[in-house]
């Protein structure tokens, strides 16, 4: 194993950059795209541990891993140790090669059910959940946490030690407390403290939005990998940029308009095929917006492509828009 990789159980992961799980974002089309663009590991969006919802359309899509590159990491959420253990077994039976436990989500609907980061207020329950899940499956189990529940209640180190003692194979730490949500600035001192105290791989998460920031955070924390979340929305090539910078110390050029067009069209086609035309077109709109968010033509681009009601129209409008930009002419439907 090289300095450019790390290991989760039997799985060697390279490069040291991971797509963080994000509800409503890290579905199979996006995971496959990010893996192709250089992510060492892609974690699924959060799936419920409640079996009453496993047969819903949303859960079926979230548990679909056919054709997905290995290793397949599936995140589960819940509060009851026995139910979480059953959910872990169910997902392993349906293709999961790594089970990830969510104790980092700050969403109210998750925390109000005492799941996600709310569990950090109950270290004894955390220990029971982790022990039950680790014992339930013969694949590595990983954990995602925050630095704590609130300012003055940072107990990431306590939870991290519980996790390692329970047999957790790797730990991801988001550098914010739950009450910060995604506001403010992530801090990495707590993550560095956790990494120094553990022997298992530790991943740093929070505000990693460039190759340079990834390298700085790895150096500051001593972590084994970084997790990239929101910065990958509309910018899946960030993984190859980070990987290249970590290996060579140099920055890759930005993708050309032609490459952005081709990546986006491929992503749209996969979304349409995966969800069906009606849902696929609707879900694709947020991705189209993310792709354009840092571009000067953002508002005009969204105004054009959001008119599409069919997969064919969405693809054609997107292709025509980029083709016009590449040719240096005004895209159709956009005022000069």
Written account of the structure:
The chain has helices at residues 28-36, 57-62, 81-93, 108-111, 123-136, 156-166, 189-197, 211-221, 238-248, 257-275, 277-292, 298-305, 311-327; strands spanning 6-8, 11-13, 17-19, 41-42, 47-48, 73-77, 98-103, 141-148, 170-177, 202-205, 225-228. The protein has 13 helices and 11 strands. Helix 1 (28-36) packs antiparallel against helix 10, helix 3 (81-93) runs parallel beside helix 5 and helix 8 packs across helix 9. Helices cover 44% and strands 14% of the residues. Helix 7 links the parallel strand 9 and strand 10. It is globular, with a radius of gyration of 20 Å.
In short:
Helices cover 44% and strands 14% of the residues.
Could you tell me the mean pLDDT? 88
Terminal residue distance:
55 Å
The whole-angstrom Rg is 20 Å
Shape: globular
Residue share in β-strands: 5-15%
Identify the strand order in the major beta sheet: 4-3-11-10-9-8-7-6-5
Residue windows where pLDDT falls under 50 for at least 5 positions: none
Helix-and-strand structural type? alpha/beta
Helix content range of the residues, please?
40-55%
What does the secondary structure layout of this molecule look like, with pairings?
Elements: E1 6-8, E2 11-13, E3 17-19, H1 28-36, E4 41-42, E5 47-48, H2 57-62, E6 73-77, H3 81-93, E7 98-103, H4 108-111, H5 123-136, E8 141-148, H6 156-166, E9 170-177, H7 189-197, E10 202-205, H8 211-221, E11 225-228, H9 238-248, H10 257-275, H11 277-292, H12 298-305, H13 311-327
Parallel strand pairs: 3-4, 3-11, 5-6, 6-7, 7-8, 8-9, 9-10, 10-11
Antiparallel strand pairs: 1-2
């Amino acid at each position: 194993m090289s300095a450019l990789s790390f290991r989760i159980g039997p799985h060697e992961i390279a490069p040291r950059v991971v797509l963080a799980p994000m509800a409503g974002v890290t579905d199979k089309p996006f995971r496959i795209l990010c893996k192709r663009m250089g992510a060492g590991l892609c974690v699924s969006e959060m799936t419920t541990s409640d079996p009453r919802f496993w047969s819903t359309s949303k859960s079926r899509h979230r548990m679909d891993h056919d054709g997905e590159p290995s290793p397949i990491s599936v995140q589960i959420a819940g509060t009851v140790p026995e139910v979480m253990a059953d959910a872990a077994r169910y997902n392993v039976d349906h293709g999961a090669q790594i089970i990830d436990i969510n104790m980092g989500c700050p969403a109210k609907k998750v925390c109000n059910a005492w799941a996600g980061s709310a569990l950090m207020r109950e270290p004894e329950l955390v220990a029971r959940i982790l022990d039950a899940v680790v014992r339930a499956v013969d694949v590595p189990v990983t954990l995602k946490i925050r630095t704590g529940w609130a300012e003055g209640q940072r107990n990431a180190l306590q939870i991290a030690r519980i996790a390692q003692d329970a047999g957790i194979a790797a730990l991801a730490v988001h550098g914010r407390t739950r009450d910060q949500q995604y506001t403010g600035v992530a801090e990495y001192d707590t993550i560095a403290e956790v990494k120094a105290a553990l022997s298992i791989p530790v991943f740093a998460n929070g505000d990693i939005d460039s190759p340079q920031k990834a390298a700085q955070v790895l150096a500051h924390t001593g972590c084994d990998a970084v997790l990239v979340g929101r910065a990958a929305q509309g910018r899946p090539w960030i993984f190859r940029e980070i990987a290249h910078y970590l290996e060579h110390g140099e920055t890759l050029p930005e993708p050309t308009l032609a490459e952005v067009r081709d990546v986006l069209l491929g992503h749209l086609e996969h979304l349409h095929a995966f969800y069906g035309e009606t849902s696929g077109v609707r879900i694709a709109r947020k991705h189209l917006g993310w792709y354009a968010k840092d571009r000067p033509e953002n508002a005009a681009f969204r105004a054009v492509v959001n008119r599409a009601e069919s997969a064919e129209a969405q693809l054609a409008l997107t292709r025509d828009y980029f083709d016009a930009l590449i040719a240096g002419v005004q895209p159709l439907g956009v005022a000069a």
